[in-house]
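Researcher: Let's do a round of design. I'm pasting the structure tokens now; please hold your answer until I've finished.
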């Protein structure tokens, strides 16, 4: 069974980006190397601060839309409930 991931990334200014993928490590690396054109490369979105796992693409798409619809303050609450220091979670994978 394949997992899908909803994730929130940020930058030094705490600009938030919500995305979805079936390969979280690959996708985060693409953001860090600015291979993803558009918003994330323009704002240097390069720190993974939150993610969730879903069992299906449909569940992940639904959850991604939910998160994108949240007020910024609610997204911050979600991040800080699991990652109060806004640590880049992907540092553990990369080192």
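Researcher: That's everything. Go ahead.
Model: Designed sequence:
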């Amino acid at each position: 069974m394949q997992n899908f991931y909803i994730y929130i990334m940020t930058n030094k200014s705490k600009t938030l980006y919500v995305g979805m993928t079936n390969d979280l490590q690959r996708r985060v690396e693409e953001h860090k190397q600015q291979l993803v054109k558009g918003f994330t490369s323009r704002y240097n979105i390069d720190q993974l601060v939150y993610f969730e796992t879903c069992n299906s693409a449909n569940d992940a798409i639904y959850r991604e839309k939910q998160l994108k619809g949240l007020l910024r303050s609610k997204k911050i609450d979600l991040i800080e409930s699991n990652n109060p220091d806004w640590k880049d979670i992907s540092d553990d994978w990369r080192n």
